[in-house]
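Pasting two entries for a bug report.
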Amino acid sequence: MRVGHVLTAAAVLLGVAASPAAADASPSASPSEDGGAPTAAGTSFRTAAEIEQGRPATASGAAGDYLYWSFPADAGQRPTVRATVRLPETHAAETWRVDVYDGLRRRQACQYGAQTRTAADAGSVELACVLRTVRAWSEPWANDPLPGTYYVRLTVVDLPTSDLGVRVGAEVEVDSMDMGGASAVDGSLSEPLVPGAAVRPDADEDGADRGAVLSAIEPEDGWSSGWWSDRWVWTGIGGVLAALAGVGGYALTRGSGRPSRVPPTT
């Protein structure tokens, strides 16, 4: 009976532990408060159009232009950038590429995804880049992705002269998957890594252009880098299971006590 109670308690704890793991596998998104999305892209890092995660942004431009967007990414997230370029009905073979940079203008490598594609007869080309998981802290010499603003650059890298300047349409969307405590590290940043710059075209009360300002975009729930992660939950559950295993082992091995045929010691 005691062994049965021990096994039942362990099964209940394992069932509770499975819930955080299932939640970590769901994508996270930051919807826009006003429900809108940018319909134009920037032409440089400083003029990048700010976008929210989970909401597609569109833009039109000419083949040969550099198109820039920026988005926030927090610790524990693994961002996925998807871009679609719509081409005119008649066009030559064009090779498009999507790149992602962090707030320090360091190009971030893609874990996988079609980062470069060539469109010959197709009317559109689809690109994707899955970044590494954003870390809460890293060594100064490392090129790990850290919490802060990230920039998406979409451009054509192989274009015949006959198609230079033709009108194209672009759509970009960023989603993130929460990787949970499996990607947690010791330490954290007190502030996001270089929150980035943005250009405010509207003027202030005196009619002067505001120019470049720090980016105001951030994750929906704010920057959550800190000491807490679901590793603490798993550590606590592991300690409880170890204690239950010790109690169960003792119950199985202690026996029924001194046999009646053995006289007590004096």
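Entry 2 (this is the one that rendered wrong in the viewer):
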Amino acid sequence: MRRKASLVLLACAVFCAALSPLMRWYAFPRLARIPANQYQDMVLEAKDATLLDYGTMRAKKVPEVTIVQTLKGNVEAAKKIEKTAGRPVVVWDSLSYVQGPDGKMVSKVPERYIFDAHTQDPVHATGETVDGDPVTRQGIEFKWPFLTQKRDYEYFDAQTRTTSPIHYKGTRTFRGLTVYRFEQTVPWTKVPMPKTMPVQGITPETVAKTGTTRWYSTVRTFWVEPVTGAPVYGEEDHKEELRGGTLLGGRDRVTAFAGDVKMREDYIEHTVALVKHNRTLVLLLTSYIPWGSLILGLLLLALSFYLEARSRRPEDPAPAEATEPEPVSA
């Protein structure tokens, strides 16, 4: 009976030992993916910002500028691209909508971002755009890879349509989570005018005829939860200027927008709660189940060897039966 039990335990030990690498190296890349139909939004605010009044073409202080960012998964587009890409793909149709303190639109810039569902590497396909302009992204945008490393990454900047390093700046604790801090500085760069302008009748083409150009600079910082690769907080020291041309009435430059853009508190709380939940799911695939299976397999193996050794131990000899002495005949 011990022999049979040891064989059963040995089979279970082999199964657990095999399950450990399978979960980490086979199941994890196939199960840890961004859903193709994901939808999320985020609200950022810039308090006491500087904003251009297009009516007077002069910059003024305003109490608040609000930026609403939405990311909507396009399932149909993802399915079409997957047929030629040969891997799971996510297509995000995003919109960055900026509004002033009066609620009126300042600018809106749509994007289509196409990337690998597991690695977050960009996938180049027709429709990859920023504000209607075709782009070929390099590096990440919006999200870091699962199991983010303590190193620099290439990060795509939608305003300049270019990629540059975003640097790892250290580890800290944020709202109970261990996070990595990343920072990227984009120097003053000439960038296109938004296709949608806040004043009716003004278009990028009419502005170009005046000789006025748009320039942009920012220092962006993200706090990234490394297991999920999701930013839990972000802020930007964002600056935009219009320079030269007759539109400015002889002035060399005027501030179009300047402010310290930060995530709104309610969205921070929602994001942290969501990331904590997803972090547990990723750890199940990368740590809890693989290591748990390996440890359980070793314990079962040790128990199997123990029972096998017990089954092979020679049994003690049976005690001799006591017999009554036979009577002696005379």
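Dev reply: Rendering is fixed now. As a check, the viewer should reflect this: Residues 265-312 form the longest helix (48 residues).
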